[in-house]
Amino acid sequence: MVHSVSRQSISGDTGPGMPGGAAQSGAPRVPGTAPRRRGPSPTARRQRRAAFLFLAPACVMVAIYVVWPILSTIRISFFNWDGMTDPSFVGLANYVELFHTSTFYTALKNNLIWLLLFLLAPPMGLAVALYLNQAVAGIRIVKSLFFAPFVLSGVVVGLIFSWFYDPTFGLLALILGHGVPVLGDARYATPGIIFAALWPQTAYCMILYLTGLTALNAEQVEAARMEGAHGWSMLWHVILPQLRPTTFMAIVVTVIGALRSFDLISVMTGGGPFESSTVLAYYMYDQAIKYYRIGYSASVAVVLFAIMLVYIVYHLRRMLRAEQ
Fold first, then answer.
1. pTM to 2 decimals?
2. pLDDT tens for each residue of 117-144
3. Statement to judge: residues 125 and 226 lie in one domain
4. Are 284 and 191 found together in one domain?
5. Are residues 211 and 81 in the same domain?
6. 250 plus 301 within the same structural domain
């Protein structure tokens, strides 16, 4: 009896109540089989399949009309091509020529001026939105008048301001009492075009802020009024923090609009006088359409895309960090 107990303790064949036995390992397993892993349920698989089917058309469209043109433009920028004959590979020659051309730096400087002055549109749009965000008689008609510039074509806006700046019969000449060649002077051409572009851009920012003002938390505004907040203190500490997503969207759209400015320059000055008002987008068009330098124009487009990409990635990171 003693020998049998010792043999059991040595061999480890303990009973169900002893540690290390069958109770420790759980239910008995069939030899040669692995534990089962539960996969996604049929409902989850159907949801994934439905989501993929809904996203597939948009992904295909983005791949065809966005991703492929970007990659094709980058590839063309390494070639010398006039759009008709066979392209010849030149490597980085287009970029070397671009960075040694004075017109490129003039266009880059004008893009920076556009960027700085165009950022006046969000605060101007906010001011107009605060003025229009009141319940008075006839305010809808006033809103329609302020919104009208946004629905106008860029060509129409350019023609209106070209007549406005005309030194012989323009409204500006009547106001000042003498004609000023705004679009014919290299010092005034770029600011004059930017002033024209601010008209519809301010209307767009106004619409964004009007939408944001309708979504304000009324309880916070009322509590701030009970605490004695009014005027600038109400705007700075209560209204603007709630309008932060709207401000972010307005700034992003305004910066992108400043970097891709083209239509007003084409209508009002054509990049002149003496290429003083050209920007990267118009310089790219000018080289491709007028001089048939498709490869060189593609290199300008790649540089402009790189500038916009840096800005967009920076703001996307800020947005993701704020959400986290």
1. 0.77
2. 999 999 999 999 988 887 777 778 888 8
3. yes
4. yes
5. no
6. no
What type of residue is 246? T
Which is nearest to 314 in space by CA: 255, 241, 245?
A: 255
Same domain, 149 and 229: yes
**Cα–Cα distance, 221 to 227 (Å, whole number):** 10
**Residue 23 domain flag:** no
DSSP string, 131-189: HH-S--TTHHHHHHHHHHHHHS-HHHHHHHHHHHH-TTT-HHHHHHSS---TTTSTTTH
Residues 6+ apart with CB under 8 A from 243: 126, 209, 212, 213, 216
Domain span at residue 313? Answer: 68-100+294-324
Please tell me the total count of domains within the chain: 2
Q: How confident is the model at residue 28 (pLDDT cuts 50, 70, 90)?
A: low
Q: Structure tokens of 26? A: 């759980």
Strand pairing category for 88-89 and 79-80: antiparallel
Name the helix (H) or strand (E) containing 319: helix 294-323
Q: What is the pLDDT of residues 30-78, one digit of tens each?
A: 555 555 556 678 888 889 899 999 999 999 999 999 999 999 999 999 9
pLDDT tens-digit series, residues 141-189: 888 888 888 888 889 999 999 999 999 988 999 998 888 899 998 999 9
- Name the nearest CA neighbour of 205 among 144, 150, 244: 150
One-character DSSP codes across 7-73: HHHHHT---TTSTTSHHHH-SPPPTT-PPP-----HHHHHHHHHHHHHHHHHHHHHIIIIIHHHHHH
Same domain for 226 and 311, yes or no, is no
Please name the amino acid found at residue 131: Y
The reply to whether 221 and 249 lie within a common domain is yes
